[in-house]
Design a protein that fits this description.
Elements: H1 3-11, E1 18-22, H2 24-29, H3 35-45, H4 53-67, H5 72-78, H6 83-111, H7 116-121, E2 131-135, H8 141-148, E3 152-154, E4 157-158, E5 163-165, E6 175-180, E7 186-190, E8 193-197, E9 201-202, E10 205-208, E11 211-214, E12 224-225, H9 231-235, H10 241-254, E13 257-261, H11 268-279, E14 284-287
């Protein structure tokens, strides 16, 4: 296959009907800690947060795996964290990722840092229905990339500072007018919009009085995020995670093709649907350092 044919195949992915799936590899490339760095941070911080004997023993089992070189996800599968240990993991993770997220935003604003995903978005002609991006990341890199390109980032919340979760209304925030069609009909016009689906949560999300909000300036340590391990499958069935997961699966099912960036195929939340579509013959353009298991044929 010559280089011109390869270029044509790649160019065909950058059009309507493509769903983009983003994993931690993209964030890592922009300075957000990955699983390896997070594991080291947890090993440093968690022991000092524990006092109960059961919690200490529970964490020691996890830490023993990490010390042997077992990955964080696998270690948390091997030993299910106690409720308190899991809460400590969530808080340390949120603060650690949040600090890196804040540094990244500062670089964008003060130095004009150009994000790789900003350049990626420029390759698409985003139309009325918007473009869908699914990510397992907690950070707001994708949101920053959208807004530096003057594209609305739709995470299914409505509002700016105290945004409510309204998945059936959020798209109307990008409405810019009404266009008359043939006859007496009318059609809403939208500015470019990227629907960002986050089945594992986001640093901006918080649960207040049992109601999910997006509060970008609120305490990071209380963020609604699902940490690695067995418990994420339980947490994934609560609001807003369940809606984001369901929407993500719907978009995967109806997509014509996929661009997969920095995602190593290690998450059952997405892969039941994704692998079915890949095995059915839908094309995928994959950019990643490591594939855990991609049995697409």
């Amino acid at each position: 296959m010559d280089i011109d044919t390869i270029k044509k195949i790649i160019q065909d992915f950058f059009q309507e009907g493509t769903v983009t799936i983003v994993g931690s590899g993209l964030s890592l490339a922009e300075g957000i800690p990955g699983m390896g760095e997070l594991a080291k941070k947890l090993q440093m911080e968690i022991p000092g947060l524990l006092s109960a004997t059961g919690d200490i023993k529970n964490w020691n089992n996890i830490e023993n795996d990490l010390a042997k070189g077992v990955g964080l996800e696998e270690a948390l599968h091997n030993t299910k964290p106690s409720s308190y240990v899991e809460e400590c993991i969530r808080k340390v993770t949120a603060i650690y990722i949040g600090e890196a997220d804040k540094r990244l935003l500062t670089d964008i604003v003060k130095t004009g840092k150009q994000l790789r995903f900003s350049e990626y978005l420029q390759r698409f002609n985003i139309r009325n229905e918007g473009m869908t991006v699914i990510t397992t990341n907690y950070d707001r890199l994708l949101e920053y990339a959208c807004e530096t390109n003057e594209i609305m980032a739709d995470t299914l919340f409505v509002g700016k500072y105290i945004a409510r979760f309204k998945p059936n209304q959020s798209k109307y925030a990008s409405c810019i007018g009404v266009q008359r069609t043939n006859g007496k009909g009318k059609k809403l016009q939208y500015s470019p919009r990227v629907i960002i689906l986050k089945p594992h949560g986001c640093l901006s999300w918080h649960l207040i009085n049992s109601i999910p909000y997006s509060l970008p300036d609120y305490s990071i340590e209380d963020s609604l995020i699902i940490t690695p391990g067995l418990n994420k499958y339980r947490e994934g069935y609560s609001v807003p995670f369940d809606i984001h997961r369901a929407r993500a699966n719907e978009e995967i099912d109806k997509a014509q093709r996929y661009i997969i960036i920095g995602y190593g195929f290690g998450d059952d939340h997405l892969e039941t649907h994704l692998m079915q579509q890949l095995r059915a013959g839908k094309p995928a353009l994959i950019q990643t350092r490591l594939l855990h298991s991609c049995e697409c044929s």
